[in-house]
Design goal:
Blueprint (H helix, E strand, L loop, with lengths): L12 E5 L4 H12 L3 E6 L2 H13 L3 E6 L5 H15 L4 E4 L14 H29 L3 E6 L12 H21 L4 E8 L16 H7 L15 H8 L10 E4 L7
Parallel strand pairs: 1-2, 1-4, 2-3, 4-5, 5-6, 6-7
Helix pairs in contact: 1-2, 3-4, 4-5
The structure holds NADP nicotinamide-adenine-dinucleotide phosphate.
């Protein structure tokens, strides 16, 4: 007897936010390779279209939907657009984000508020719109939030960013507890040092003298490849994670262990 494949996402439909480049683009391509339909969502339309075209060129199914996650109406419109295009929506990877590398002493009120708006309030709005839609339709759903080990480890000059990610982890637990009765699961993954750094904080990753200091602190002895975030994402979106909710999974080569 042939067993049903584990972690099967074939013909399922997902939104990936911040998918115009970096981690989001890599995860969107990986979900498409796993047979899923993917809505590529982000602020820069040309980036989203490029990623969607590259998926389509490999035989995958993807649409590009420009949106700003800080605007709740645009979050709702993105969800409606994905459902219209694919006839269903099974989950989302809420991944978009902005970085700020700044000493707390020099961080202005506006900069701090901007980080919370871009990395936390927007996560709440996107999740709330997904939750509203699935509860109204009586459908289950799975959300993967993109956190960071900066949510619980202090890094130099990352106060506003770290606080925004700490909020993401608590949002994960809170929504998971509130929405489990609706069949909606919410989990988070937390990358550490990855080979492609996010815009705005490249300087704390990439300079050779910085790398020389960081590498000895990573038990795995290297930065992570973006592709190494895919397996956890597929697992958390899949039915095999049906009893897993409210969890943070570190993917950081052991950095947060020591
Ligand atoms: N790379 C790492 O080493 C690392 C480590 C830990 C955690 N993370 C987390 O992983 C996520 C992705 O990081 P990344 O390295 O791929 O960053 P990135 O290369 O800077 O990409 C971020 C993406 O998010 C989009 N975006 C930002 N604000 C948005 C908004 N308000 N609405 C819609 N889209 C928005 C950007 O599009 P536009 O440019 O068009 O705005 C861009 O496509 C972030 O949440 C980050 O905090 C990254």
């Amino acid at each position: 007897m042939a067993a049903a494949p584990l972690f099967d996402l074939k013909d399922r439909a997902y939104i990936v936010t911040g998918a115009g480049r970096g981690i989001g683009a890599e995860l969107a391509a990986g979900l498409a390779e796993a047979g899923a339909c993917v809505a590529i969502a982000g602020r820069t339309a040309a980036d989203c279209e490029k990623v969607a075209s590259s998926i389509a060129a490999k035989g995958g199914r993807a649409i590009a939907v420009p949106f700003d996650a800080r605007d709740e109406a645009q979050c709702a419109a993105l969800i409606a657009e994905a459902e219209r295009a694919f006839g269903r929506l099974d989950g989302a990877v809420v991944n978009h984000g902005i970085g700020l590398h700044r000493d707390a002493l020099d961080t202005t009120r506006d900069e701090f508020a901007n980080m919370l708006d871009g990395n936390l309030t927007s996560y709440f709005l996107m999740c709330r719109e997904l939750g509203r839609r699935w509860v109204a339709e009586g459908r289950p759903g799975s959300i993967v939030l993109m956190s960071s080990n900066a949510s619980f480890l202090a890094y130099d000059e990352l106060a506003a960013y770290g606080v925004s990610k700490a909020g993401v982890d608590q949002l994960c637990r809170q929504l998971a507890a509130e929405w489990a009765r609706h069949g909606i699961r919410v989990n988070a993954i937390g990358p550490g040092y990855m080979t492609a750094s996010m815009k705005g904080i490249e300087s704390i990753y990439d300079a050779p003298e910085v790398k020389a200091k960081i590498l000895p602190k990573i038990p795995a002895g290297r930065y992570g490849a973006l592709r190494e975030l895919l397996g956890a994402t597929v697992y958390l979106l899949s039915d095999e994670a049906g009893y897993t909710t409210g969890q943070y999974l570190a993917i950081d080569g052991g950095y947060s262990l020591i």
